[in-house]
Design brief:
Number of helices: 0
Shape: globular
Number of strands: 11
Order of helices and strands: EEEEEEEEEEE
Distance between the termini: 40 Å
Helix content: under 10%
Largest sheet: 7 strands, mixed
């Protein structure tokens, strides 16, 4: 089992950058695939980015491809989401998630494949 805690959210102007962090408890965090999802007000939770336990391969939603980068440092039990060239439509609560289940490529973007979730961190982009 793993407990996830996100941080790094905040208010930023359009075009700016933020880096979100997700710290996982437990010595086995390095064996978990992880993903980032987001939920805007009044909308469903959607996929942002994901990676498997060793950081390769990585997957991105089309809306963030080229602007966001997912990474991890297993020695620190931490995953990251570097967000650049932020837009107002990126405003949402961002959640990190983890699973030890093996996944096909198309499953990395499916929230139901992830067993553990953080509490979320708010990202607000002002235009």
């Amino acid at each position: 089992q793993v407990h996830l805690v996100e941080s790094g959210g905040g208010l930023v102007q359009a075009g700016g950058s933020l880096r979100l962090s997700c710290v996982g408890s437990g010595r086995t965090f390095s064996s978990y695939s992880m993903g980032w999802f987001r939920q805007a007000p009044g909308k469903e939770r959607t996929f942002v980015a994901a990676m498997n336990w060793n950081g390769d391969p990585t997957y991105y939603a089309d809306s963030v491809k080229g602007r966001f980068t997912i990474s991890r440092d297993n020695a620190k039990n931490t995953g990251y989401l570097q967000m650049s060239r932020l837009k107002s439509e990126d405003t949402a609560i961002y959640y990190c998630a983890a699973t030890r289940s093996s996944m096909f490529r198309w499953e990395y973007g499916k929230s139901w494949k992830y067993d553990y979730w953080g509490q979320g961190t708010q990202v607000t982009v002002s235009s």
